From TrEMBL:
The keyword Transmembrane applies. Keywords: Membrane, Transmembrane, Transmembrane helix. Residues 64-86 are annotated as: Disordered. Residues 156-250 form the DUF1980 domain. InterPro entries: DUF1980 (IPR015402), DUF1980_C (IPR048447). It comes from the Bacteria. Signal peptide: none annotated. The chain crosses the membrane at residues 33-55, 93-112. This is TIGR03943 family protein.
Length: 256
């Protein structure tokens, strides 16, 4: 791969990073807090690509002035021994490196959903503490936060409160409906599900991967995840309604 091709590939990668970071596309891959790093990396790649192209253009101009006949190339493509075509073939093949990049930009994969949730054990872990819930009823709360309060806090901070939370639907082979949110440490590669069971006023038809906003109250009912024997608390649903997929489908509100 010659330097012009290297510069072009760097430019495409940098532009793709900037495109993803300036839109919500990057949220399919990494958590929201990494956006500044993606912007910095994309900018650096674009600047490097432009600097490389400028350097190569200046070098070619100097060689033209120095030789006058264009036969002084140091890349071995002008000696008439067939290496010119070989260099061109290498350049064409090198462009295959950008095909995965176009695939990621043009055909962005969906966020992890019910299949991953039902085949991966819950990642719920005991939090270090619980912040005081804000005033109002129902109180909006993260799914991971509710699960921690319900199981490890035994629902003490939830007593007498109605809560509202959002997640996607997963249904176990036995027919138990779960509301799930995938929690991230860094990126989608390490995403793990946190699940709560649903009981009470559940819609008669639940479509896996459909997003629901549910309002309900704490119940002491709980079970164990059949995948890893992890804890799964329940929520007694009073109202459930479908909602669009949120801008950020992953839940970052958890701690190791």
């Amino acid at each position: 791969m010659n330097r012009q091709t290297q510069a072009a590939v760097l430019l495409l990668i940098g532009v793709a990073l900037l495109h993803g970071a300036l839109t919500d596309l990057y949220l399919r891959y990494v958590k929201e807090g990494l956006r500044p790093l993606l912007l910095a990396a994309g900018t650096l790649l674009v600047v490097t690509a432009l600097a490389t192209a400028w350097y190569e253009w200046r070098r070619a101009r100097r060689e033209e002035r120095g030789t006058g006949d264009g036969t002084g190339d140091d890349d071995g493509t002008g000696d008439g021994d067939g290496t010119r075509g070989h260099a061109h073939r290498e350049s064409r093949v090198s462009w295959l490196l950008v095909l995965p990049l176009f695939a990621l930009v043009l055909v962005a994969p969906p966020a992890l959903g019910s299949y991953s949730a039902t085949h991966t054990g819950t990642a719920l872990q005991q939090p270090y503490g619980y912040a005081e819930l804000p005033a109002g009823d129902p109180v909006p709360i993260g799914l991971v936060d509710y699960a921690g309060r319900a199981f490890y806090g035994h629902g003490r901070s939830l007593e007498g409160r109605s809560v509202r939370l959002t997640g996607f639907v997963a249904v176990t082979p036995s027919g138990t409906p779960y509301l799930v949110r995938m929690a991230l440490n860094c990126c989608a590669a390490d995403a793990q599900p946190v699940k709560i069971g649903l009981t009470g006023n559940i819609p008669p038809v639940l479509q896996p991967n459909a997003w629901l906003e549910v309002t309900g109250r704490y119940t002491a009912r709980r079970t164990r995840d059949p995948v890893n024997d992890g804890p799964i608390p329940f929520l007694r649903v009073t109202v459930a309604r479908p909602v669009p997929t949120p801008r950020d489908p992953y839940d970052e509100t958890w701690n190791n």
